[in-house]
Write a structure and sequence with these properties.
- The protein has about 270 residues and is an alpha/beta fold.
- It has a single domain, classed as Nucleoside phosphorylase domain (Rossmann fold).
- The protein contains seven helices and nine strands.
- The protein has a five-stranded mixed beta barrel with strand order 5-8-7-6-9, surrounded by four helices.
- Strand 7, helix 5 and strand 8 form a beta-alpha-beta unit.
- Helix 4 crosses helix 7.
């Protein structure tokens, strides 16, 4: 991790950054909004995973968004691709090492919320880990005992609300349940998740949020609703639908992210 951060710092990626952003399925166009962009494929960065899911790129970008320096991780690797919940540990650690002041995660999710149908944007207020996995398993230091109360930073959530209001974008809030995937959930599993308090379901984000807290990064997360969860109003999710709806919602997400970044400190310590 330290080697990757040092090598990146020597090749145009030295920070600090107002925030780092991880893009989910179909949301890679977020990187297109950067000015003064410098890019590097994950394949050329020590310890970075190469995403193996269509709809996820594999490129790290730095650039200027809303007048602030940002890092954009175009695409992620998932725990289900390798059976490793810590697959994004090096990228998240590198974001911190390069001086990112916060982490914004984005994802595509299924919705259990009647008011948030396909194309809606939802800010995560909390999560439920139903995958039975944790990226800190095997960590030897006492730092592994990461507190997760207020995991999605209230100050960042307030900025997202303000940004959405300023853009005229409806922003819902909800609890995200992480299923390991790669198969989609059954209707029975969705009914269970709803009874446990979930508003959204997906296959990512939670391990990255845990890693962010481990590295001391404040974190916020946004879901693009791509489908009704299985069994809800005829919901029968599939990957092509996820990519198509996420891509259609990407412009609104990009506007919201840009407005959010404008509300961050330009050079965090």
């Amino acid at each position: 991790m330290a080697r990757a951060a040092a090598a990146l710092a020597e090749t145009g990626f030295a920070g600090p950054y107002a925030c780092a952003i991880v893009t989910g399925t179909g949301l890679d166009p977020l990187a297109a909004g950067l000015s003064e962009r410098v890019s590097r494929p994950y394949a050329g960065i020590s310890g970075f995973p190469e995403p193996g899911v269509s709809g996820h790129g594999g490129t790290l970008h730095r650039g200027i968004l809303s007048g602030r320096p940002v890092l954009v991780f175009e695409g992620r690797a998932h725990a289900y691709e390798r059976g490793d919940a810590a697959v994004m540990r090096t990228p998240i650690g590198v974001a911190r090492a390069l001086g990112a002041g916060a982490l914004l995660l984005t994802n595509a999710a299924g919705s259990l919320m009647p008011e948030a149908g396909p194309g809606s944007l939802v800010m995560l207020s909390d999560h439920i880990n139903l995958a039975g996995l944790n990226p800190l398993v095997g960590e030897a230091s006492e730092a592994r005992f990461v507190p997760m109360t207020g995991a999605y930073a209230p100050a960042l959530r307030a900025r997202l609300r303000s940004a959405a209001k300023g853009c005229g974008i409806a922003l819902h809030e909800g609890v995200y349940a992480w299923f390991s995937g790669p198969s989609f959930e059954t209707p029975a599993e969705i009914r269970m998740a709803g009874r446990l308090g979930a508003d959204l379901v997906g296959m990512s984000t939670v391990p990255e949020a845990i890693l962010a807290r481990f590295f001391g990064l404040p974190v916020a997360a946004l879901s693009v609703v791509t489908n009704r969860a299985a069994g809800i109003d005829g919901g029968d999710p599939h990957h092509a639908e996820t990519k198509d709806v996420a891509s259609a919602a990407a412009p609104d997400l990009a506007r919201l992210v840009a407005a959010f970044v404008a509300r961050l400190d330009p050079e965090p310590t």
